[in-house]
Amino acid sequence: KCLGGALLARSDAFFADPAINPVLRTLWQPRIRLALVWAEEEVAKLADEGRTFALAEKWGNYQLGGIRLSGKVDRIDRMADGSLVIVDYKTGSAPSGKKIAAGFASQLGLLGLIAQESGFDGLIGQASSFEYWTLNKRERGAFGARKILFGKKNDDPEAHSQFIADSGSNALDVFQDYLLGTKPFVAKLHPEHALGSDYDQLMRLSEWVGRDV
What we know:
It is a single chain. The chain is an alpha+beta fold. The protein is built from six helices and five strands. Helices cover 37% and strands 23% of the residues. Helix 1 (6-15) runs antiparallel to helix 2 and helix 4 packs across helix 5. The radius of gyration is 20 Å and the shape is globular.
């Protein structure tokens, strides 16, 4: 349901704090207000379509290949047909479709796996959609967007099921190789998909990246 301005009130109270830097207030408060208005309108629109809130900020667990897979989901909604929507909030950009298809952004798929195996206490259902909610700037100065994976109408159940299966399979391979097997941990196994880490200097990345060792 619509939050009735609760998010805006909370945001305004935060920026009213005298300790907030005036420059930060001037730059960010108008943008955040626009994004929060979008969020409230989006939630209200989805509610009109029969979509209901299920849970938020909750840890889930599932035993995968003898290893406990755990994750904290930002939000899960329930569709009118009883299936689940796994939602991840982003203050910046969501992963590209190419990166997700290549298996380098499996977070939502693994959360979907935990959900379908009843790993979130009290929640039962099959994930039928995966979404990123971002606060990025859009066209004409608007802020906030909802990125739906695998189409725009949540109408590709085969793709959703395959995403969950592939995410679980990839995770299981990692568990067997590095946690249960003998492969050594490798820094940036795929550097092209992991640029700009805060720890690059500690691993002396510039000395070896790109070399065929």
